[in-house]
Amino acid sequence: MSEKPLVLEHVSFRYRSRQGAAIHDISFSAEPGELLLLAGASGCGKTTLIRAINGLIPRSYKGELTGKIRVQGQETTSMPLARISQMVGTVLQDPERQILGTKVINEVAFGLENMGLPRAEILRRAEAALEYLNISHLRDRETFNLSGGEKQKVALAGVLAMKPSVLLLDEPLASLDPASAQEALAMIRRLADEGLTILMVEHRVEDVLQIHPSRVMYMSEGEIRYLGDAAGLAEAVDFREVKLPARQVALRAAQETTPERVTFLPKTQRAASAPLVRFENVSFGYETGHEVLHGISLDIHPGDVIAVLGPNGAGKTTFVKHAIGLLKPKSGRVLVNGQDTRQASVAEIAATLGYVFQSPSHMLFAPTVREELAFGPRNLKHSAEQIEQGIKRALEIVNLRERENDPPLSLSFGQQKRISIAAILAMRSKILVMDEPTAGQDYRNYMNFMDAILQMPGFEAILFITHDVDLAVIYANRVILVADGTVRADGPPQQVLKDYNVLRACRVVPTSLLDLNLQLLPKTGQFLRAEALAKVL
Amino acid sequence: MLVTWRYRPRKSLVQWFDPRAWVIFYLCFLFSTLAFWDIRFLLPFLAIALLWLFTSGLTWNEVRRPFLFIGAFVFFFAFLTFLTGRGGMEVYETEHLIRRLQAPFTILGWRPTLEITVERAFFAISQFVRVFSIAVMTILIPYSLNPALYGVTFKGLGLPDKIAYAMDLTMRFIPTFARDFQLTMDAQRARGYELEKISGGLVEQVRKLGPLIVPVTIHAIIGSEDIIDAMDLRAFGIGPRTWLQELHYQPRDYVLIALGLLLLVCSITLGLSGLGNFWVPQALIRWATGG
Predict the structure, then answer these.
(1) Confidence of residue B159 (pLDDT cuts 50, 70, 90)
(2) Most B CBs within 10 Å: which of A140, A379, A413, as the mutation test of the B interface?
């Protein structure tokens, strides 16, 4: 009798350090070749479920695990982790946290080396995995020099080389640019078609629906709320919690008795005054190699809400690091408030331009959230009263008022990210710059704080780097497309985002919301969020 | 994610040898150097180190930072030894004064005095040569050993699989730590933090380093946990592992190992026979004493 690749029976788990079960009474099974999409808001238990299946729970994450988990008919609860890992492959959300090898071939071979296979067999399987994913050309490259999409593929190759029967993917699209995400999805579909059982956790439900998952599981508060085909998902979930295709959201919003009418207007209006930031023919290259930015010239004016889009490694972060003076141009100059960044310290510029880094763990240090938020304003010599007001306001915006006295480092990743944004909001800079502000956040949270940030008084301009085209559609009044260190397009979203050829050249993939907006543009005259489109549909 | 040192393959003497042979030679060199305080014995070691350096193909631009940092560090401690006269007490008993410099002021009745003696001066020079020779050889390691071969090199030196892989990770942890430090520094500078403006007493200054030290430390701990999970998730430690890369000794590697061992044996023998202890030129002593 052939066993099902994956069976869970009444599985519950409670972390030792927390009260209440993280997952409760989870039962389901998966067939060979099944692609099961797992969706839900942050804290719904998705990651806990993945950890229970791959064995990290209860081995690395201690707590009480009950119920039965069987992989290929074998109960895994008492198996050593190393044995489970030969049957269950896991690709984590951030490939950077998974890659161990210095070179691609070493990374892909790592699991096979641990299994003690003969060297020729290791080479054969590692090279086959690389070829399968069309990345043989990366074989001898150093892993830390790869782009985000390449790292993701290399991490996947390392897992596939071990020939697991079940593949767990924890938000595999999170760090990828839209085109890389599309490629990853096509690859995942192919793996399922060839018989691999795949359980995929993903916030970007809309994207995954394109590759037709066999079933969709929706979790909330540690329990399965829906398990069935994709068609039924739209009815079963809260469309504010999980990102569904724009037309479905619009239709659902129209059915609501009191349709949510979000009126967003930036408090600042774009003016023809002197630019806040000016890039004059800026070029830059790191010590080690080639030029990253080539002759960038642009102005940031009061009233600008700018979305910077472009592929991984295009130079987006390098570009914004010039604005705050962390990097100085090799040629050309950057002026902030009329002052050359070469002549100003980063601390001086920080009073004008607040920059939220991508990773919160690189900046959080204080014993309480309140002290963390006071750090920046104190450095900028704000008065006690201003600091107090800034903290209060910032915590309200990121919806963490009740966490004021908690240690930031004890919070979840999503909450830490929001604290890192609040820390900069509290500084009351004139310009707010955010690098991937929504990474690691669930849909409802990031939409809420983006709404709040854009309506916060005091900012004269906002700039954010993102892979999420919909953020540009909904929030930006100006879109800058960057590729290969140059600005490919710069203008209002309605103008820049309508040229699909340029978008493709910048590895930006149009979304259903963009499609729908462009279609309805003659009626609306502006880009709107899906809920707002309900009225014109 | 672990990053690696700035290694790149070059046609150089050091990269001509098997990494295991080079590590063995390095260890022999290290322990041999430690056997001496006599500058006449230490100078050949400096010459050997410089030979490796100048044939390594490294440009000054590449190694400027570590050399300036470590060079300044070694010089500072040698100079401190010279100023205080401490450190050399164990290797010489009598001192011959060249000049006594006295400050024109007193601090609570104590007048700062610098006694320049032949022994102090020579001890500082010997100490500099000794430590700088080792530093030159050590700086070469990250630039000349292929990071992809760290693990198999340590395995090839007889370490068990787990220890060899741990050594591999440790070697890469240092540049990773430096990168994380830089990222944290940038993030805090963007919040108006200025390291150069830190003031106050020692405790206060350390406290003000918290915004740098805490995130870097926490990041290192989280990073280590990620690494352990990533290794566990790919069957690490299940049994004896196969190392994909293979290393093969060539005749030249045996020659290098033999030279290293010869150097070590000779050094230990000389040391045990009482040669190579601290030495100062007699002529200098005669000059100092006016004899």
Answers:
(1) very high
(2) A379
